[in-house]
Description:
Layout: E1 2-6, H1 16-29, E2 41-46, E3 62-64, H2 68-76, E4 80-84, H3 88-96, E5 101-104, E6 118-119, E7 124-125, H4 146-164, E8 169-172, H5 175-181, E9 186-188, E10 211-215, H6 224-236, E11 242-246, H7 252-259, E12 268-272, H8 276-284, E13 288-291, H9 301-308, E14 313-316, H10 319-325, E15 330-332, H11 337-348, H12 351-368, H13 371-384
Parallel strand pairs: 1-2, 1-4, 2-3, 4-5, 5-8, 8-9, 10-11, 10-13, 11-12, 13-14, 14-15
Antiparallel strand pairs: 6-7
Helix pairs in contact: 1-13, 2-3, 3-4, 6-11, 9-12
Amino acid sequence: MKLLIYSHYFAPSIGGVETIVMSLARGLAELRAENGAREFEITLVTQTPRGDFEDSALPFPVVRQPGFWQLMHVVRGADVVHLAGPALAPLALGLLRRRPVVIEHHGFQVICPTGQLLIESRGEPCPGHFMAGRRGECWKCDPALGWFASRRLWLLTFVRRFLSKRAAANIMPTKWLGEQLDLPRATTIHHGLIQISPARKTEPQSSRAPVIAFQGRLVSTKGARVLLDAAKILCEQGAQFELVVIGDGPERAKLEAVAAQAPLVGRVRFTGKLASAELEKELARASVVVVPSLGGEVFGLVVAENMLRGIPVIASALGSFLEVVGEDGITFRVSDAGELACKLGELLQLPSQIQKLGEAGRQRIETRFSLQAMIEKHREAYRRL
């Protein structure tokens, strides 16, 4: 089967979409029929420049930044077109060429003009203005966009939704996302994770202050400021801890300015973006990982990866996080720094609970979110088409 996978973002870019697309493409490329032939002849198309990434090391060809006619050519040659998100050009071309189009949704682009389902100006989850018919509210969501850009995104949302309803299949990484998007021919295929070894503690827990870790891009939607506010409360309560912020982004300078003020002085360390080995080293010191996102999350790869490492996770109670965490993690009300501080304070005083939660979380991810299961379910979906 000739399978075209289109992902606007791909390596060397780093992110959740890029990680899942790479894992899926590699996994499908390894599948063999009984006669030893590849089951899938994969071509991956992306708008991401190659940079210093070695495309030749991959088990499939990569077409980068194609023009319109080149894109049309690869779509025409495919048996199935798989899109990582409702990208308009390949989606329209796939439908025009009468190819089965599969859309795997990694955001809210068919129900939210910004794709975040977040009221940017207030840092609050959106109650669903677009789907509820209160579409004028979408124009006011992010004032920084301006009049023209906000209305352009608003109009494109109608187009994406119209075309997505005509896809052969709409794949959701969580059942919760499927309920939000409300598209026909929808199925849930959870993201699958590459096996990660349990985080190995570099020193006994009792010999040091507990380490609270944040891992993610430093943008407003990831909620790092909520964690800093919770850390302030813990300081005022006399709690002993170190907070390490792993990642980089446009909000870093603002967050560092907050961390440089009392009572957080000397308690917070920013590492910036880390290579894989350094990341594992930092996380090996963590007693707990906090994922305080305000919105824009359809699965929660950071949540699942750290649970797989055996590290307890405290996450905001977004619908997607609740589905991933289940009973084997801790959640708090979105943007509620006071409740987060309370949950952190309780957990850090119970070393036995930290270990118990870590083990339960790892078992949950291994059982329910395996990479092999994700690949097999995609194969079944393509075969049905």
